[in-house]
Amino acid sequence: MNKIMKKTNAYYATLCLNLFTLMFANQVRADAADDPLLTLFMLEQLEYRDADEDNPAALSGQFWAGYDLDKLWIKAELERSDGVTEEAELQALYSKAIAPYWDFQMGWRKDFQPSDEQIPSRDWVVVGFQGLAPYFFEVDTALFLGESGRSALRLEAEYEMLLTQRLILSPEIELNIYGQNDPLTGVGSGLSDIEAGLRLRYEIKREFAPYIGINWSKKFGNTAHYSSLEGQPTSETQIVLGFRVWF
Known about the structure:
mainly beta, twelve-stranded antiparallel barrel
């Protein structure tokens, strides 16, 4: 099994490397000044979440580098509890602009389970779209295909309401749907979980903004059942305090 996992991981890594090499190979231009190489790092959420115990913290960020139409995109999420990393996710994607404000993305995702060696890590091929929907909703949707016929769908949406030029209220929601049960990672088929948040940030500078808010999450179906068997809550409401930074 370990040999199969290593070969699969190597395949995904090679696939992503080939995609990124192709992307940058296509960027040889007669006049590079018309389409310069750009980069952006954004730490969207670095926050402490108030709870009854375990002192949870969360991080969510992304980095991209590339040109107007083609980019290398890295997305990362991390959750820690009581000083221990509980979950970590990393995505490496090739992003292609297909319409104004819309990108097609494909690549690789890896789920890490660093706090418990008994829980396996998972690898996925990613196909998705990210962009700005009508009425300025930021949308990120992705289909994940994994080993042994595993599949998943993630839908994310966020909206920014400008109360003043510096004070911004941001509601957001995320849904995860899985194609089959995966008891080893505690994931059930169908609608697995929903997470919704409401954050109010103040932009001291455009590049730096502390915020306060509330975060609600709920698990459904067999995902909730697996969580109950482990003695974990199936629904949580937390006060969050953090900051957002980009450059």
